[in-house]
Amino acid sequence: MKIADLNQLKISTLLPSPKGVALALLEACRQEDISINEITKLIQTDPALAGRLIQRANATKQTTRAISSIAEAVSHVGLNAVKQLAMGFSLIDQYSKDPSNGFDYQEFWSHSLLMAIAVQKLSKTTQASSSEDLFSCGLMMRIGCLALASIYPDQYSQLIQQQSRGIPLQQLEQQYLQTDHNELTAAMLINFGFPTIFVEPIYYHETPENSGFSEGSRPYQILHQLYLAKQIADFALTKESERSQCISELLLLGGKIGLDTETFGDSIDQIMQEWHIWGKILKITAKEQLPSFHKMMSAAAPRPEDATNASSLRVLLVEDDPTNLILSKELLSNVLGHTVYTANDGQQALALAMEVSPHIVITDWMMPIMNGLELTKSLRATEWGQNLYVIMLTSIEDEEEVIKAFNAGVDDYVTKPINIRAFRARLRAAWHYRQLQESWERDREQLKRFAAELAVTNRKLEYYALTDMLTELPNRRSGMETLSETWSIANRSGQLMVIMLIDIDHFKSINDNYGHSIGDKVLKEVSSIIRKTARKGDTFCRMGGEEFLVVCQLGNADVKSSILFAERLRHQISQQQISIGEIHIRITISIGVALKEINMKNEDHLVIAADKALYAAKNAGRNRVYLALKDKLLAAPPPPSTKKVDPPADKEK
Ligand SMILES: Nc1nc2c(ncn2[C@@H]2O[C@H](COP(=O)(O)OP(=O)(O)OP(=O)(O)O)[C@@H](O)[C@H]2O)c(=O)[nH]1
Asked: Does the keyword Phosphoprotein apply (predicted)?
């Protein structure tokens, strides 16, 4: 995260800053021993702030009883949030009238308010943070833009205009102002006393992929809620004709934080309602009421209402007659506002089309070298030419000829001389076709992305379902699946089958002596030794607690080699000192080995036999291997060669 150095920028005195009671609150909250009583007294001096605070407290309270006093509102909302809300409200009051510098202050706050309400709503679904804290984060997360607009009024309005031509604002800000709104926001929020846990996610809210936060962590969750809140705010303020393009992306993002379409749609509707209510309270103009999200989701692609909507198409005009070419070009570019490329015959047009990828090809019919029909057929023969919209210009409106043109692949025809109004109307149809095509392509891309993300999520879920999270060994469920598969194969093939149950001796004393987290580390260490010592093909899992299961690979499963392996493992663990920081621990394990026998009905009987052997090993003094064989429990040869290490686990410092 790069934070702007406010002093170096020499702009600190020009930065938007809270005034009056908000400023006093900011100062007061810097004192560690400030009491709610003192804060309440301060707020009482500003009736507008007091009223808004009580309204906010009521907006988030769980009970039906209304909060009516400032003290109650302060303790409900929390000191931190009171301070942040006071700052946000104070800034709105001071910076909401548009000075004539081109920066739309009302739209800025309207957008910020939307982000605040949206992130608060989303936070309730994941409970990553207090929703009041997040409300203030949403309200202030683009405060750097406001700052830049106030410090560099003229330059900043020019940058905003350039941004609307497709250059990212952050890039323009860095280029012309040597800082950007995110750096400045971070610096200002730190100055206002916002905790880093919020400032960092706010800094990355436009580019979450650059944050490096680990998946599922608290900053990661906050960041993704802020990101989604911004997308929702952008969506609400975008032009109606462009709204449908954002819907699938929004649904995908909602899905990522665990919201199904129904719940997500309802949340968006509630956000929009609250936006209007809060807009009135703070005197910020919220846009007209949007239709319900479900309605917007099922709406058909918009049709252009006038020619301005249908402008800016890339048109390839093919005409051999120079006068007609000039006239048509003039009409298309100057009157109708399209970008026009020209060619004099079909062959030239084919080459140019490949180069400029036009949206529409308007071609004359009769031309030398390659006529309009041949050009259309050639275009349709290519993959990229399938979706081009082709309009044929013709002087005769003979039905047979027209059918011929449509059979060759044209989408429409216009008779010459061109009638401007009719031509404009037909281009609108072409524009609509283009819109549908783009939305279809977008949906397909999103579907691909969604499928890829779903595959990753499913793989992760599968991993989590079969893995013990502490030791990262396969878990009991996975072990039981292997056991039952191996049992079936051994049954069919008649091969020998051996399993082992391993249990750490006196593990409870490790927890008791050193605490649970050291106990966890010992479990991890033992798992790692088992993993390293196990023979190739043997599968092992953590059964739970301090018990592990090894299912020997059928080829390895003769009793002698399995006992040797168990002994080696036991010996290895008894010899290895486990060091965790300053603490050094030696532990031992007991192992029960069992062999599949004819009288065993299923794998459970095999586990019971191994358990009996384990119990016998424990009873015989622990740190040893026992074998269950033909209803007998035998100490496994060779007997433990190492000195018996008995309870409790010794502590060496
Ligand atoms: N740290 C930690 N402890 C666990 C975990 N799962 C189980 N335990 C503890 O493991 C201990 C098992 O204790 P016991 O079943 O009495 O067995 P033991 O102390 O190993 O004694 P013996 O098996 O008789 O040698 C209990 O104290 C559990 O709380 C875990 O995931 N982490």
From this structure: yes
Cα(507) to centroid(ligand 1), Å: 5
Residue 603 confidence (pLDDT): 94
Return the ligand 1 atom nearest residue 508 CA: 19
**Mean pLDDT score, 456-475:** 90
What is the SS3 assignment for 414? Answer: strand
Ligand 1 centroid – CA 510 distance (Å): 8
Beta bridge partners of 549: 501, 541
- If you measure from the C-alpha of residue 503 to the centroid of ligand 1, how many angstroms do you get, rounded to a whole number? 9
> What pLDDT does 381 receive?
92
Q: Residue 547's Cα: distance from chain center in Å?
A: 37
Which pLDDT score, from 0 to 100, does residue 188 have?
A: 87
Testing ligand 1's pocket by substitution, the residue of 506, 511, 523, 548 carrying the most ligand atoms inside 8 A of its CB is 511
CA nearest ligand 1 atom 26, residue: 508
Q: The tokens of 175 are what?
A: 């280029």
Q: Which CATH number fits domain 476-652: 3.40.50.2300, 3.30.70.270, 3.40.50.970, 3.30.450.40?
A: 3.30.70.270
Q: Cα(543) to centroid of ligand 1, in Å?
A: 12
Could you check whether 314-438 and 476-652 share the same CATH topology?
no
**CA 509 to ligand 1: nearest atom:** 19
Beta bridge mates, 467: 474
pLDDT averaged over the chain?
Answer: 85
If you average pLDDT over residues 285-309, what whole number do you get?
A: 71
Dist. CA 547 → ligand 1 center (Å) = 9
226 confidence band (pLDDT: 50, 70, 90):
very high
User: Closest Cα to residue 131, out of 119, 141, 140, 143?
Assistant: 119
* Helix ranges, 331-419 (H): 346-356, 372-381, 399-408
CATH number of 98-297: 1.10.3210.10
Residue nearest to atom 31 of ligand 1 (CA): 545
Ligand 1 atom 6: residue of nearest CA: 545
Q: What's the one-letter identity of residue 272?
A: M
Residue scoring higher pLDDT (93 or 516): 516
pLDDT confidence of residue 487 = 95
Gap between the Cα atoms of 293 and 373, Å rounded: 45
Domains of the chain, by residue range, sit at 11-94, 98-297, 314-438, 476-652
Q: Tell me the per-residue pLDDT of 45-61, one tens digit each, with 9 for 90 and over.
A: 888 788 888 887 887 66
Shortest-distance atom of ligand 1 to CA 544 = 6
pTM of the model: 0.62
CA of 651 to the centre of ligand 1 (A): 17
Contact by Cβ (8 Å): 343, 374: no
Pocket test for ligand 1, best of 501, 502, 507 (most atoms within 8 A of CB): 507
Write down the pLDDT at residue 303: 62
Task: For residue range 138-183, list pLDDT tens digits in order.
Answer: 988 999 998 888 888 888 888 887 776 677 888 889 888 888 999 9
**Between the ranges 37-41, 328-332, 414-418, 593-597, where is the mean pLDDT highest?**
593-597
- Confidence label for 648 from pLDDT (cuts 50, 70 and 90): very low
Classified by CATH at the fold level, domain 314-438 comes out as Rossmann fold (3.40.50)
Distance from Cα 580 to the centre of ligand 1, integer Å: 18
Residue 297 has a pLDDT of 80
Report whether the peptide linkage leading into residue 648 is cis, meaning its omega lies within 30 degrees of zero.
yes
Tokens of 279: 């807009």
Residues with CB under 6 A from ligand 1: 470, 503-508, 511, 516, 519-520, 523, 545-546, 618, 622
Q: Residue 512 CA: which ligand 1 atom is closest?
A: 27
Six token digits for residue 487: 């049992």
The Å distance, Cα 529 to ligand 1 centre, comes to: 18
